[in-house]
Design brief:
With 591 residues, the protein is α/β, with parallel strands linked by helices. It has three domains: 2-328, Up-down Bundle (ABC transporter transmembrane region fold); 340-424 and 509-591, Rossmann fold, CATH 3.40.50.300; 432-503, P-loop containing nucleotide triphosphate hydrolases (Rossmann fold), CATH 3.40.50.300. Helices cover 65% and strands 10% of the residues. It contains 22 helices and ten strands. The protein has helices at residues 8-13, 15-32, 34-54, 60-116, 119-124, 127-169, 171-178, 180-218, 220-225, 229-254, 257-282, 287-328, 388-395, 418-423, 439-443, 452-461, 465-470, 488-501, 518-531, 544-547, 567-573, 576-590; strands at 348-356, 363-372, 377-382, 403-408, 411-412, 425-428, 506-510, 536-541, 552-557, 560-565. The strands form two sheets. It has a six-stranded mixed sheet with strand order 6-7-8-3-9-10, with helices on both faces. A four-stranded antiparallel sheet has the order 2-1-4-5, with helices on one face. Helix 3 (34-54) packs antiparallel against helix 12, helix 8 (180-218) runs antiparallel to helix 11 and helix 8 packs parallel to helix 12. The two termini are 67 Å apart. Bound molecules: adenosine-5'-diphosphate and magnesium ion. Adenosine-5'-diphosphate (ADP) binds next to helix 13.
Length: 591
């Protein structure tokens, strides 16, 4: 329950809605109980009329006055019912709206917080889990904020007013009539708890089913070519069977709900009539009182039912909020020490930098020192797993070094404002990711306001402009799930154009030419020489062809820099670089 305290700040924010909600609920209840009171008055009036009529001492005038009073009661009842309706509407308009607003705020808060968390967080947690907490868990919390609070307050107000009035009329009758209600409440609690558990099972089973279908149809080509259709149908049948089984269970549990309520109301009514009748014969209560009590019991049934339901909702909401809080309480360790925002020239200096991935314990970079001077084109070459991408990640400050430090211009990298630092870097990651959007929007991702000329030039520099022009929709071509399928090389080049649009001080290309042929690679590298003339670039690759033009090449092996120099210098060293060269020339030769 203490987890839900987190939401109190939102109650403070929306205190106006909450207070008005309480007021409206109280007014609704007040007008609601006018109904039974009028019924009692009317019945008592009719009883006394009948008694007097028996004695036949009624004047015509008295008769009309009886009729008139009866009409008055009916009028009051009607007006009260109308007002009750108005305030019921107002209650929903305040409490439920409050819950929707808080839901919106909370979702945004969680999303913003997610974005501030470091990459290591995303490694640790599955995307499905992140999605579930921002959608399902927030929805469950909303059920607490809206319906649970609304019915909770309604129950308290209605119970207090009705029961205290009932007790004032007759203590014993009240006690007997209310006896079945706690049993109802407890049984509903168990039923709704079972219902919730079962609904979740169904949800899970449904998500298994859809994941299965999605996978089967994404891989339909493999499925068909391996003639696995029958097996796939069999598995689908199994999954659906599971879903059906869970659904039938829910129906079985659901079936208890209304019989329980009706059974309890029935019992209360019988008790009211029996005990009430006895009391009436003793002259302790009137006939009107019995009718009134029966209506009260009916009025109380729903709130009492909701008590069980509300308890179950609150428990679920608390569990959900606990999951949300777990993520919200995680803080990013990548923070700026002094938030410097001075212009960055692009000199990067690594001072004995080591880095160990916390998740795997792998030391990916070991005591690496190098300097990347402003305007220099530096290349990093090494086999897979030698730590190249890790160095790029460290420069973008996606991770902080475990040991040693990185100096940008004259300051430690940690001193810079994070967004400011990253805005100066054009990073082309190794695994290309394009959003399901038009090519134009993907290229202009860094800055939506950028002109078409800039976009066009960037794609020319990345040597992908001619490909884009070949598509019927040109720059408006959709990529991703519903769009066209780009080749690996096209994606890589669009990703390069996206970095160039930023006009960065420092460009980092992380193995992003691996899927283009060497001829295209030459063209792109040549273009980049011109574009990046007075800017700094770090070119990372496992291919000699990508790095040989660089001013200086660092050879990385198992996280350490083992050689450095220009292409020619390294060749004469006859070390690892020469080996790479020979291997790759050999394989190119085979091609
Ligand atoms: N996110 C990660 N978590 C744990 N280990 C990682 C992660 N990324 C890379 N590694 C490990 O760090 C080492 C260096 O990886 P990486 O820098 O990607 O190499 P390269 O880019 O040269 O292929 C590898 O052994 C790899 O398994
Ligand atoms: Mg890599």
């Amino acid at each position: 329950m203490k987890e839900l305290k987190y939401l109190n700040k939102y109650f403070v924010k929306y205190k106006k809605h909450l207070l008005l909600g309480v007021l409206f609920i109280s007014l609704t209840v007040c007008f609601q109980i006018v109904g039974p009171q009028m019924v009692r008055e009317s019945l008592d009036l009719i009883t006394s009329y009948l008694e007097q009529a028996d004695n036949q001492n009624l004047t015509a005038e008295q008769k009309t006055s009886f009729g008139y009073r009866l009409l008055q009661y009916a009028g009051v009842l009607l007006i009260a019912a109308l007002l009750r309706g108005v305030f019921l509407y107002a209650t929903r308009q305040t409490v439920i709206i409050m819950s929707r607003r808080i839901e919106y705020d909370l979702k945004n808060e969680v999303y913003r917080h997610y974005q501030s968390l470091p990459l290591s967080f995303y490694r640790k947690n599955k995307t499905g889990d992140l999605m579930a907490r921002i959608s399902e868990d927030v929805s469950k919390v909303r059920m607490y904020l809206g319906p649970a609070i609304m019915y909770g307050i309604n129950l308290i107000v209605l119970f207090t007013i009705t029961v205290s009035y009932m007790v004032s009329v007759n203590k014993w009758l009240t006690l007997f009539v209310l006896l079945p209600l706690p049993i109802l409440s407890i049984s509903i609690y168990y039923v709704s708890d079972r219902m919730n558990v079962q609904s979740e099972r169904i949800q899970r089973s449904l998500s298994n089913l859809s994941t299965f279908v999605q996978e089967a149809f994404s891989g339909i080509r493999v499925l068909k070519s391996f003639v696995r259709e029958d097996d796939s149908s069999e598995r689908f049948t199994q999954e659906s069977k599971q879903y059906k089984k869970e659904s039938l269970k829910l129906v079985a549990i659901n079936s208890w709900f209304f019989p329980l309520i009706l059974g309890m109301i029935g019992t209360s009514t019988v008790i009211a009539v029996y005990v009430g009748g006895n009391e009436a014969m003793k002259g302790n209560v009137s006939v009107g009182n019995i009718a009134e009590f029966i209506i009260y019991v009916n009025l109380l049934t729903w709130p009492v039912t909701s008590l069980g339901w509300v308890t179950s909702i609150i428990q679920r909401a608390a569990a959900s909020q606990e999951r949300i809080n777990e993520f919200l309480s995680q803080k990013t360790d990548i923070v700026s020490t002094t938030n410097i925002k001075t212009s960055i020239e692009g000199t990067i200096c690594f001072n004995k930098v080591s880095f160990t991935y916390p998740s795997s314990g792998i030391e990916a970079v070991k005591e690496v020192s190098f300097e990347l001077k402003k305007g220099e084109k530096l290349a990093l070459i090494g086999g897979t797993g030698s730590g190249k991408s890790t160095i790029a990640n460290l420069i973008c400050r996606l991770y902080d070094p475990t040991n040693g430090d990185i100096i940008v211009d004259t300051q430690d990298i940690k001193a810079y404002d994070l967004a400011h630092l990253r805005s100066h870097i054009g990073y082309v990651p190794q695994d290309v990711f394009l959003f399901s959007d038009t090519i134009q929007n993907n290229v202009a991702f860094a800055d939506e306001t950028v002109s078409m000329d800039v976009i066009s030039q960037a794609t020319k520099d990345a040597y992908v402009h001619h490909n884009i022009m070949d598509f019927p929709d040109g720059f408006q071509t959709l990529v991703g799930e519903r769009g066209i399928t780009l080749s690996g090389g096209q994606k890589q080049r669009i990703s390069i154009a996206r970095a160039l649009v930023k006009n960065p001080k420092l460009l980092i290309l992380d193995d992003c030419l691996s899927a283009v042929d060497t001829k295209t690679e030459d063209i792109i590298l040549n273009n980049l020489q011109a574009v990046m003339k007075d800017k700094t670039a770090l070119i990372i690759s496992h291919r000699v062809s990508s790095v040989k033009f660089a001013d200086r090449i660092l050879v990385l092996d198992d996280g350490r820099i083992v050689e450095s120099g220009t292409h020619d210098e390294l060749l004469s060293q006859k070390g690892l670089y020469k080996q790479f060269c020979e291997q790759q020339l050999h394989s190119e030769g085979i091609k």
